[in-house]
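Journal club side-thread
Mid-discussion, someone asked how the predicted structure for our own chain would compare to the paper's figures. Pasting it here so we can look after the session.
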Amino acid sequence: MRILYFTRRYTVHDQRFLTALSTEGFEINLLILEKGTNQIKAFTQPENVSIVPWTGLKHPLNWYSGFYLQKSLGAIVEQVKPDLIHAGPIQSCAFLSALTYFNPLVSVSWGYDLLIDADCSSINRWVTKYTLRKSDILIGDCQTIREKAIYFGMQSDRIVTFPWGIDLSRFKTTNTKQGENGTFTLLSTRAWEPIYGVETIARAFVEAVQEIPQLRLVMLGNGSQKELLYRIFSTGNALDKVKFAGQVKQAELPRYYQKADLYVAATHSDGTSISLLEALACGTPALVSDLPGNQEWINPGIQGWLFPKGDIGGLKDSIINAWNNRDRLTEMGKSGRSIAESRADWNKNFPKLLEAYKLALHLAASR
């Protein structure tokens, strides 16, 4: 089977999908919307994946981008002659694919596209409804995505839900928690952008560390809020309690979870967070915002805790509560690992993507 895999940017998630697909004997053609093929340099290109040359998007993405890209994308579809198009996010790559009238089309939600972007404007609502109407199958990573897709008109029997998953052989438990000299280490792994709520983490940590000097915070990544974060920590006299570890290679990521006492995320929108699954798989209890997607994985007091989204005081109190209950963290970590093994195993979940492809092909053939 020949697949045209169309993504907005080439990310580690795309790499995982393509690596798995390449082992199935498919002929895979990778098409990247933004910055041509430059993004492939950030990650290893899987075997049996051919990059389709395309200048792609030359201007900032907006609702009418599809109409000036429609002709060139149509030419690529004619050139590749795929048996199936796999495309996402919804308002960009899936929408562009829908404009070509090609079927079967498997659209993939990346979470934010349905949870945030779909409601940004009347145009986005129209684009979302149009794309879902033209999609044979929609893939989503949690029940919240399913419900939102149904709200926008997608038939429930054409939605395949699975939480993508992680490599449980890489993300696993150890006995190497940081805890040196009685410290208690929090770990943040999300990008330093407003949607991920890292400012909330910084402000809550500054308040919490005033009461509990043993607290430490490790922040991975980078982003547009770098100066703001440094200013918050500096003004709050907490800069010496924070370690900025920068961008971490995937091979090094598990040890950060394994050494942390508590994983913290304050995202304002998420489906099934891969970072959360990685933390649970490593036996690290999680303290995350009370989004529906997070509620599907965290039972308060069992695998970790939830706090009200965007609530600095609520997060500070939850950090203190975790410190006060640190004798329970080992048991909570075991529960997190257990739920990861039962529901977040990439090797078990990946076949659902293949099932989605088969269903899409069947629906297209029955027209």
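Post-session note: The mean pLDDT is 92.
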